[in-house]
Specification:
The complex is a heterodimer of chains A (465) and B (223). By secondary structure, chain A is of the alpha+beta class. Chain A folds into three domains: 9-159, Beta-Lactamase (2-Layer Sandwich), CATH 3.30.450; 219-303; 307-460, Heat Shock Protein 90. Chain A has helices at 12-79, 153-203, 219-269, 275-303, 315-332, 351-368, 403-406, 425-435; strands at residues 84-89, 95-98, 112-122, 128-139, 145-151, 311-314, 336-341, 346-349, 374-381, 387-393, 439-444, 454-460. A five-stranded antiparallel beta sheet of chain A has the order 2-1-5-4-3. In chain A, a hairpin with a 5-residue loop joins strand 3 and strand 4 (128-139). By secondary structure, chain B is α/β, with parallel strands linked by helices. Chain B folds into two domains: 2-118, Response regulator (Rossmann fold, 3-Layer(aba) Sandwich), CATH 3.40.50; 127-221, Arc Repressor Mutant, subunit A (Orthogonal Bundle). Chain B has helices at 10-22, 33-42, 59-68, 84-92, 105-118, 153-164, 172-178, 190-202, and strands at residues 2-6, 26-30, 47-51, 75-79, 97-100, 127-130, 133-136, 141-144, 147-149, 169-171, 211-214, 218-221. In chain B, helix 2 packs parallel to helix 3. The longest helix of chain B is centred in the middle third of the chain and has 14 residues, at 105-118. The A-B interface holds A 280, 287, 290-291, 294, 298, 301, 309, 321, 324-326, 328-329, 331-332, 350, 352, 355-356, 359-360, 362-363, 366-367, 420-421, 425 and B 82-85, 102, 104, 154, 180, 182-190, 192-194, 196-197, 216.
Chain lengths: 465, 223
């Protein structure tokens, strides 16, 4: 069974601190161990070199002055205090001179040999202590033997000091690394906490909260930026939804009220009413309400839409098709209809929506242009190298002051109140233009004031080759 | 026709049943996806009408599974989800047509009739005939009686669609979808004008009109 861990163990702060401490300790001890071995190794090689030097000097004394000279040198050197021991023995193993009782190891038959040995001595306090030494033993050509040894006791002291230091360093290092780990992980945790606070704020309804970006460009900054971008999109969607809700409530109320009043009237009039006609009119009105409702929904969807599913759309062909679709109807309305379409123009977009936008513009032109007027559909590349879809007519136009309002939802300008329509046509064109990263413009048409006519143009970026 | 309607909204189900029964179809209704699929597999139907959002198995899944198990009855989706994307999903799942709620009864009848005829064994047709009107699909010529009629390409496609659905009501929305491939409704009467031009060519100088307007619904080509 697993024991439940205290909650602080689960925090990132704690985990990071522990990981940091352990890593720090491993590195520190690795470094100390390396230091120890390199120091010890250096001291060892240094002592061997010094021993060699002593042996060389004594060998030189033997070579120049024989045993007498060697003996003299040994006696001299033995009298100097220091870490070296000297022993000179004759061929029978009797000690001749030196400051050590005898050669503690077997003497080799020829040349020299290294040796390690322990010996007992009295320290300054009069206690017996065991020390170790490292020496070289040489067999001289006359059968005598010489040993020069180096007292390792001193070297051990240094090594002991290092080990002792390591043990002292352990708790200090541990403490330091824990503190370092805590500082680092607290910093990381604080940034994470800022994000948590931001999201908490959002959950509790404040959608305007944003995660802090401190400009360091690190992972937290990047995460915050992404989070903020996501929130912007969400807020935009929420706004759109809210607007759609308001619009539905506001603009379906009046036709529904009208419908209800009419039904009420028919009911009161009783027998006098032609039942069938009343029902047919009701159905027609309900259909109109449903059409408005659908238009509101699709407008909201367009406004919240994304361009991810865009494909290349040949707007020249689309223009030709729509011109062909509308021409007969326009002519029946007593309008002359022209189309000027540049071939092979494509944009990245949604064919159905672009078709809808063109149809809305053509519908509008047809509705508002009086008999005998003219309308023109143009598809071309404009001077800014944009794809331009425009519809001009010779109708009453829209006064400049009203143009901005005309593309808002449900705005039906005074002049148009008598015409059928739901007031969403131009708003939809505007939304479709925005969705395609383009613009929708209204300006004066070709006519003379006061009936200037209207030119409605959709400016879209051309498709990338 | 033997029709299975799978629709969870009882009001809508009885509405569908009623308008189809009045036209002489026999209609069974089921109110959830699983029993709908079970029934569709166990009996032979000439047509399935499937709501997209159903309890216990949604319409898309139902049709997909029905097709996978070899069911080939034509299928009409009925749905309040009317986006082009939704339509495409429906057709990809194996539906043959897609009708958005709310719809006019005539719209439903027209589409049901169109689908019902599609079910039969279809040899490639090269000549369409309605009364004395004759269309040659290979030569792309039209004549009425002995008189040949000159049509624009779009008028030809419009007439072809009407002739293929001769005797049935064809709605404006159907024409926009099938002849123009548009899934949006223009607010003005653009389709009517095309029809009246076509009428001018095929009916004007003849005693018996073939192309009839069905008030509030659409058009019918009938001898």
């Amino acid at each position: 069974m697993r024991l439940p861990l205290p909650s602080f163990v689960r925090t990132t702060t704690f985990r990071l601190a522990v990981v940091h401490a352990v890593t720090f300790l491993i590195f520190t001890f690795g470094l100390l161990i390396y230091l120890f071995y390199s120091t010890a190794g250096y001291m060892r090689s240094q002592s061997v070199k010094e021993l060699d030097g002593e042996v060389q000097a004594l060998a030189a004394a033997f070579n120049t002055g024989g045993m007498a000279r060697l003996n003299q040198s040994v006696v001299e050197r033995s009298s100097v205090p220091g870490p070296y021991f000297y022993v000179l023995q004759d061929a029978d193993g009797q000690t001749i001179s030196g400051d050590f009782p005898s050669i503690p190891d077997e003497v080799p038959d020829e040349e020299s040999v290294e040796t390690n040995f322990n010996y007992q001595t009295l320290n300054r306090n009069g206690e017996i202590e065991v020390r170790s030494a490292n020496g070289i033993i040489i067999r001289l050509p006359n059968g005598a033997a010489l040993m020069v040894a180096y007292d390792l006791g001193q070297r051990r002291q240094i090594v002991d000091r290092i080990i002792q230091t390591m043990w002292t360093a352990l708790p200090i290092g541990l403490a330091l690394s824990l503190i370092g780990g805590l500082i680092i992980s607290r910093w990381a945790a604080r940034r994470a906490e800022q994000l948590t606070r931001t999201t908490d704020g959002i959950i509790s309804g404040d959608l305007s909260r944003r995660a802090p970006v401190i400009g360091s460009g690190d992972e937290f900054d990047r995460l915050s930026e992404r989070l903020n971008a996501m929130l912007d999109k969400l807020e935009h969607l929420m706004m759109t939804t809210r607007h759609a809700g308001d619009a539905i409530a506001h603009d379906l109320r009046s036709p529904l009220t009208r419908l209800r009043n009419r039904l009420e009237n028919d009911l009161r009039d009783g027998e006098k009413v032609d039942r069938e006609e009343s029902l047919e009119r009701t159905i027609a009105e309900v259909d109109a309400v449903l059409a408005t409702f659908n238009a509101i929904l699709s407008l909201s969807r367009i406004q919240a839409g994304d361009a991810a599913k865009f494909k290349q759309v040949d707007i020249s062909m689309l223009g030709e098709e729509l011109a062909e679709l509308y021409q007969p109807a326009a002519e029946d309305e007593g309008l002359s209809f022209d189309s000027e379409i540049e071939g092979g123009l494509t944009v990245d977009g949604d064919r159905s929506l672009l078709g809808q936008a063109m149809a809305n513009l053509l519908d509008n032109a047809m509705k508002y242009t009086p008999k005998g007027g003219a309308m023109t559909l143009r598809v071309r590349t404009n001077s800014h190298d944009q794809a331009e879809i425009s519809v001009t007519d010779t109708g009453p136009g829209i006064p400049e002051a009203d143009r901005e309002r005309a593309v808002k939802r449900f705005v039906r300008l005074e002049a148009s109140r008598t015409q059928p329509g739901n007031g969403l046509g131009l708003a939809m064109v505007d939304a479709i233009a925005r969705l395609h990263h383009g613009k929708f413009e209204l300006c004066d048409g070709p006519g003379e004031p006061p009936a200037t006519g209207l030119r409605a143009a959709l400016l879209l970026p051309k498709a990338q080759e | 026709m033997n029709i299975l309607a799978i629709e969870d909204d009882l009001e809508m189900a009885s509405f569908v049943q009623r308008i189809l029964s009045e036209e002489g179809h026999s209609v069974e209704t089921v109110h959830d996806g699983e029993s709908g699929l079970a029934l569709a597999r166990s009996k032979e139907f000439d047509l399935l009408i499937v709501d997209r959002m159903l309890p216990r198995k949604d319409g898309l899944e139902l049709v997909r599974e029905f097709r996978e198990s070899g069911g080939n009855a034509p299928t009409l989706f009925l749905s309040a989800l009317g986006d082009v994307d939704h339509r495409v999903e429906g057709l990809k799942a194996g539906g043959d047509d897609y009708l958005t709620k709310p719809f006019a009864p005539d719209e439903l009848l027209a589409r049901v009739d169109a689908l019902g005829r599609r079910g039969g064994t279809e040899a490639p047709i090269t000549i369409l005939k309605v009364g004395d009107l004759e269309m040659n699909l290979l030569a792309r010529t039209v004549k009425r009686g002995e008189e040949s009629i000159d049509l624009q390409p779009r008028e030809f496609r419009l007439l072809e669609f009407l002739m293929r659905n001769a005797g049935q009501v064809v709605t404006r929305t159907m024409l926009l979808e099938k002849v123009w491939d548009y899934h949006f409704d223009p607010q003005t009467n653009v389709i009517d004008v095309h029809i009246s031009r076509l009428r001018g060519k095929i009916d004007k100088d003849f005693d018996r009109p073939l192309l009839h307007t069905v008030r509030g619904a659409g058009y019918r080509l009938q001898a």
